[in-house]
Design brief:
The chain has about 375 residues and is α+β, with helices and mostly antiparallel strands. It contains 13 helices and 14 strands.
Length: about 375
């Protein structure tokens, strides 16, 4: 085997070319890491948004979207009195009637934004137990409460959505009562307001859904309730299943993200092959000399692969530092919410494997081209 130091010395022959190769491979690795982080973030926020203990009662035929659902206003009371095994706190059952709606908000009359509004009562905190008020207080009539990532979802300055500030919801001035957190869920991009306020503002007579939280009860009990009360025209759905359907809906978008990264990686690989062909071609006589003094072709090819792999792994290291420094913690918005990019171990591993793959695949074709010529003609080569 050729000494490891031989590969290092060859890399340092042309620092400019080395820098170009490191930055090129680093860009490819960075794109793959971004794609992996977006994919993980979107899947993570959608899977964390639904609890298996929460059951959504919504209109039959509207299982794909709560926004399209309409159910009777008396559903919450009937469900609370008819279904056993619901969670209780101080004899108050975890039953949350809600209205979900897309509405226009503005911080001034010339800047309208579309936001996801959730009309709630104080019982919402019994059902959505991951929600906590970070600043200010819980929403009251005439007020709204904003998720801590709502500013990012709406494209507004963070200071515009602070407690005490005023925003306009469908032309009605509302005071921001507080900021809430629901870590890792789409609720952090929502705006909550009093159920009756949203009902009167949107001129709605019906609820969107009723969310129940189970204690000792089973989903089958609630499903049976919906089948017995045909007059209410209800369907029951686990909250986790609902968000799983949404995640499946966004699967093509995640696939496009990976496809974009793959196309960029393929283009960079082809460009890297050209670079390595140009780098290895003048060394045909050198490689032939190594064969003449006793080094086997496998050992020489392994050394060439070492050179390429060291370069691409250096690029992966640079990409990792860039990802940690510039991407980790950035909020990314999509149609129903926002999520935080995280350079997790799986993302870092995707970057490492990309760098390793670029090094291995990129060196073999040009290396074989240098080793294929017969030894006598290779020794007479002008390289």
């Amino acid at each position: 085997m050729l000494p490891f130091g031989y590969a290092i010395r060859n890399l340092m022959r042309d620092p400019a070319r080395l820098l170009q190769a490191v930055l090129g491979s680093g860009l490819v690795v960075l794109m793959v890491m971004i794609a992996a982080a977006i994919n993980n973030g979107m899947v993570g926020v959608l899977s964390a948004s639904g609890s298996a203990k929460n059951i959504i009662l919504l209109g039959a035929g509207s299982e794909e979207s709560v926004l399209r659902s309409e159910i009777s206003d008396r559903t919450a009371g009937i469900a609370e009195s008819s279904i056993t095994g619901l969670e209780k706190q101080v004899d108050v059952r975890a039953v949350s009637p809600e209205i979900h709606q897309m509405s226009f908000i503005a911080i001034d009359s010339n800047d309208r934004k579309q936001a996801f509004m959730r009309g709630v009562t104080p019982r919402a905190l019994l059902v959505h137990q991951g929600v906590s008020v970070q600043a200010g207080h819980y929403v009251r009539p005439g007020q709204v409460m904003v998720g801590r990532l709502a500013w990012r979802r709406l494209g507004l300055p963070e200071e515009a959505l602070q407690p005490g500030a005023e925003i306009w919801v469908e032309g009605t001035p509302m005071t921001i009562a507080g900021i809430f957190a629901a870590p890792g869920t789409v609720m952090e991009s929502e705006i909550w307001m009093d159920l009756n306020d949203l009902r009167s503002m949107s001129l709605r007579e019906h609820l969107s859904c009723v969310v129940l939280r189970l204690d000792t009860g089973e989903f089958e009990d609630i499903d049976l309730f919906t089948k017995q009360r045909l007059d209410l025209e209800l369907a029951a759905l686990r909250e986790s299943d609902y968000f799983a359907k949404i995640a499946a809906f966004y699967a093509p978008i995640r696939g496009m993200t990976w496809m974009t990264a793959l196309l960029i990686a393929t283009g960079a690989l082809l460009g890297g092959l050209n670079t390595l062909y140009a780098a290895f071609a003048p060394r045909i006589r050198e490689i032939a000399t190594l064969q003449a003094i006793g080094f086997g072709r496998r050992a020489i090819l392994f050394s060439l692969v070492q050179e390429s792999t060291i370069t691409t792994l250096c690029g992966a290291l640079v990409a990792s530092f860039v990802a940690i420094g510039l991407l980790d913690g950035i909020a990314v918005s999509f149609s129903i919410g926002s999520f935080i990019l995280s350079v997790s171990p799986s993302v870092a591993m995707a970057g490492l494997m990309t760098g390793l793959g670029l090094g291995l695949v990129g060196a073999i074709p040009p290396g074989l081209r240098c080793l294929l010529p017969p030894l006598p003609s290779a020794l007479r080569s002008a390289g």
